[in-house]
Design brief:
The complex is a heterodimer of chains A (261) and B (346). With 261 residues, chain A is an alpha/beta fold. Chain A contains six helices and 13 strands. In chain B, strand 7 and strand 8 form a beta hairpin. The chains are: A alpha/beta (261), B alpha/beta (346). The interface between A and B is large, with 80 and 99 residues. The structure holds flavin-adenine dinucleotide and adenosine monophosphate. Adenosine monophosphate is lined by residues 6-8, 36, 38-39, 63-66, 99, 102, 106, 120-121, 123-124, 127-133 of chain A.
């Protein structure tokens, strides 16, 4: 089975965020970046699926669209066990915020590969759209299922375990080729071993200039216009001081205001 | 039609009882609000099979009475259970025939599954998980969250983009007040229910869904707990669960956690709070090392009092906390546990 994993580079979770001067995005240059969390789980699921089918059963290809620096996501994927990688190189700015435009780029690169299965994360930590994977399936004309925890190969294609609201789940079967978006937490992530990092150096990362696809661009009816700090919904009383002082203030609140002590 | 079309969801149970999820009513409230502001009509559609009884049921009272221009039943036997293919194809046909200016959805797991594909058929993406809508110079501005709620963003429409292509928007749970529908109800005329039958063949539906199931019966019921101490990824490692546990014991509280803690197996799944866990409404919710992503907040923002401890003063959890401590949990939690024990001993 040829499995392709769409992986996005995002700022580290705890990175301090500063709004850019034009307020269209954040100040990106000083940030440290990582792989979008569900995408790391998507890679893990792809590697497990390949392992379960036998090592000679196919390949796992990591794909990202992003500026030059996004290649580190691919190198990490190769070190964890992906067989090769594709990097659609985009300009560092302007930032691409329309998931339809991103999906068009990914689709253009994927058409030349015709994978059996495409895995994406269910949503990005930065834009939080939860759309790129679903749009990609639509553009490629293949079936999809979202919010998936596990993928299993069956004779007619795949069977996936999908998360529903309130602790419910559901199995869904689909023929291949298909696209699945992966929810975090369905498995435990493997670490890149020293051996893996060494091996990764000889693995192929093919770069493709985004402009070479000659895409027309999209006409989103509503566009990201201004980034701002959210207003507070509740009046928060901040308690300050040393740990002991804060603890004493909290005990006072627990006792006299919340009345649980 | 050139108005707002709201896509409704319902739950049907054995013995014919029907409920309308709250988030659907909230999306309807958003749609009604948008339509009023722009002085255009608001309609709504429900998708499934055998919907007449559903739409006539008491649960749909607030929907019938809100003054909709049209209430549509999109019906086909192939729509009896949800599939992304069935729903995208049916709604594509409905939207192409009605030509609404705006299509508004509740941001549910089901909508996440098909709405981006549906919008893509119109050359659009979805303004997903919107938390507010305001009108500026006669055009709506949609607000959505970035970076798991740490920042917000305005999404603006260009004047030229009002018609002919619809704008697709999904509404976050809790962002609009379902109660505002009751106020609109008084003077409204219930609309005729109109049937819309999409052209659909079984060959077009490529996925085969099985019946939903629950993993195990929940042995921990957090919904009745009056004090909850909840741990998030800020605790760093499994060994530190003990720190939180000591505090919970001192307070006589139930332990809960954010999703990553349960995913990692540091606490059992049944202690997870949030959209894929339990929804709790204790007297006190003490959130420790939890950032406050919306999927966590929906499970606990009904708590009477929220106290948050987080070293990042701009963490979104502070937006809904009554009391906050911006500091290191590894210093504050042990000091607090000790102070509580001392107080109790007095
Ligand atoms: C469809 C879907 C469903 C989901 N369902 C749920 C759900 O049911 N429940 C749920 O919780 N999540 C759910 N999530 C995940 C959710 O989006 C967040 O990723 C998750 O809630 C984050 O957990 P956290 O706050 O513990 O971790 P993080 O976001 O990583 O936050 C950790 C926090 O700890 C703070 N911190 C770090 N070190 C310290 C220290 N020493 N002292 C004090 N503070 C510290 C940091 O400042 C940070 O704010 C869901 C996501 C999706 C997409
Ligand atoms: N630039 C990108 N390169 C590769 N994959 C991406 C990119 N952007 C988004 N994706 C994939 O689409 C998923 C959903 O992203 P989003 O629609 O932004 O929430 C991510 O988890 C990735 O798997």
């Amino acid at each position: 089975m040829k499995i392709l994993v769409a992986m996005r580079q995002v700022p580290e979770r705890d990175a301090p965020l500063a709004i850019a001067a034009d307020a269209k995005w954040i100040e990106g240059s000083a940030l440290s970046y990582t792989t979008n969390e569900p995408d790391a789980y998507a890679l893990e699921e792809a590697l497990r699926l390949k392992d379960s089918l036998g090592p000679a059963s196919g390949e796992v290809i990591a794909l990202t669209a992003g500026p030059e620096g996004a290649a580190s996501v691919l190198r990490d994927a190769l070190a964890r066990g992906a067989d090769r990688a594709l990097h659609i190189v985009t300009p560092a700015s302007p930032q691409q915020h329309d998931p339809l435009a991103v999906a068009q780029l990914l689709a253009a690169a994927i058409r030349g590969e015709s994978p059996d299965l495409i895995l994406a994360g269910l949503q990005s930590d930065d834009l939080g759209l939860g759309q790129t994977g679903v749009i990609l399936a639509e553009l490629l004309g293949i079936p999809h299922t979202t919010l998936v925890l596990h993928v299993e190969a069956i004779s007619s294609g795949i069977r996936v375990k999908r998360e529903l609201e309130d602790g419910w789940f559901q199995y869904v079967e689909m023929p291949l080729p298909a696209l699945v978006t992966i929810q975090s937490g369905g498995n435990q992530l493997r670490y890149a071993t020293l051996m893996g990092i060494k091996k990764a150096r000889s693995k192929e990362v093919r770069t493709i200039d985004a402009a070479s696809f000659g895409l027309q661009g999209t006409a989103a009816s509503a566009e990201l216009a201004r980034v701002f700090v959210p207003e507070k919904q509740r009046e928060t009383r901040m308690l300050t001081g040393t740990a002991a002082e804060v603890a004493a203030k909290l005990v006072d609140v627990l006792r006299n205001e919340v009345r649980v002590l | 039609m050139s108005g707002v079309l709201v896509i409704l969801e319902h739950r049907a149970f054995a013995q014919g009882s029907v409920t309308v999820p709250r988030v659907t009513l909230e999306a309807l409230a958003a749609g009604v609000h948008l339509a009023q502001q722009l002085a255009i009509p608001c309609s709504a559609a429900l998708i499934g099979d055998g919907l007449n009884d559903v739409l006539a049921s008491p649960a749909f009272g607030p929907v019938r009475n809100v003054g909709l221009a049209q209430l549509l039943a999109v019906e086909h036997e192939l729509l009896a259970s949800y599939t992304a293919d069935g729903f995208s194809i049916a709604l594509h046909q409905l939207i192409a025939s009605l030509a609404p200016e705006f299509v508004v959805f509740p941001h549910t797991y089901q909508v996440r599954d098909y709405a981006p594909a549906l919008a893509a058929r119109f050359g659009q993406s979805l303004v997903s998980d919107a938390i507010a809508i305001r009108i500026e110079s006669g055009l709506p501005v949609f607000v959505r969250q970035l970076f798991q709620g740490r920042l917000n963003a305005d999404y603006r429409m260009a004047a030229s983009s009002r018609t002919p292509v619809p704008t697709f928007v999904s509404i976050q749970a809790g962002a609009f007040r379902a109660e505002s529908l009751d106020a609109a109800a008084a003077s409204a005329q219930p609309p005729q229910i109109e049937a819309f039958t999409p052209k659909l063949t079984s060959a077009q539906i490529r996925t085969v869904p099985a019946a939903p199931f629950r993993e195990s019966s929940r042995s921990v019921d957090l919904t009745t707990a009056s004090v909850i101490v909840a741990a998030g990824r800020g605790i760093g490692e499994q060994a530190n669960v003990a720190l939180i546990q000591s505090l919970a014991e001192a307070l006589g509280a139930e332990m809960a956690a954010s999703r990553p803690i349960c995913d990692a197996g540091w606490l059992p799944m049944e202690r997870q709070v949030g959209s894929s866990g339990q929804t709790v409404t204790p007297k006190l919710y003490l959130a420790i090392g939890i950032s406050g992503a919306i999927q966590h907040l929906v499970g606990m923002k009904g708590s009477k009092t929220v106290i948050a401890i987080n070293r990042d003063p701009s963490a979104p959890i502070f937006e809904i906390a009554d009391y906050g401590v911006a500091g290191d949990l590894f210093e504050i939690v042990p000091a607090l546990t000790e102070a509580i024990l001392t107080t109790k001993a007095q």
